[in-house]
Write a structure and sequence with these properties.
Length: 123
């Protein structure tokens, strides 16, 4: 079984910083993509930042210049360094990974989600 475990969420004042971490564990052959999504109450879930296995990164326009995503393939972890936080960044942040794994006699790619971690930015 594969699990994504997140940490680092919390309450911070506007202008402050937080670092989110996500670790994938279990039966893993390789990880194709790891990303961070977020969802605020009343809003749709949106991509915040993503990485590919080749090292390419992508950011939502609203976080460019403030957030940095990084990935450690050896540890199967992804982090999101968030700086200059704004109240509109308040949301539940979810770790996502597309993982290749062996299932009995086959090898499949499956989508996995973390449980979500709350980030609250006060003004």
């Amino acid at each position: 079984q594969v699990q994504l475990v997140e940490s680092g969420g919390g309450l911070v004042q506007a202008g402050g910083s937080l670092r989110l971490s996500c670790a994938a564990s279990g039966s893993i052959l390789s990880i194709n993509a790891m990303s961070w999504f977020r969802q605020a109450p009343g809003n749709q879930r949106e991509l915040v930042a993503g990485t590919t296995s080749g090292g390419a990164t992508n950011y939502a326009d609203s976080v460019k210049g403030r957030f940095t995503i990084s990935r450690d393939n050896a540890k199967n972890t992804v982090t999101l360094q968030m700086s200059t936080l704004k109240p509109e960044d308040t949301a539940v942040y979810y770790c996502y990974a597309q993982i290749r794994r062996r299932k009995l006699l086959s090898i499949e790619s499956q989508d996995y989600w973390g449980q979500g971690t709350q980030v609250t930015v006060s003004s």
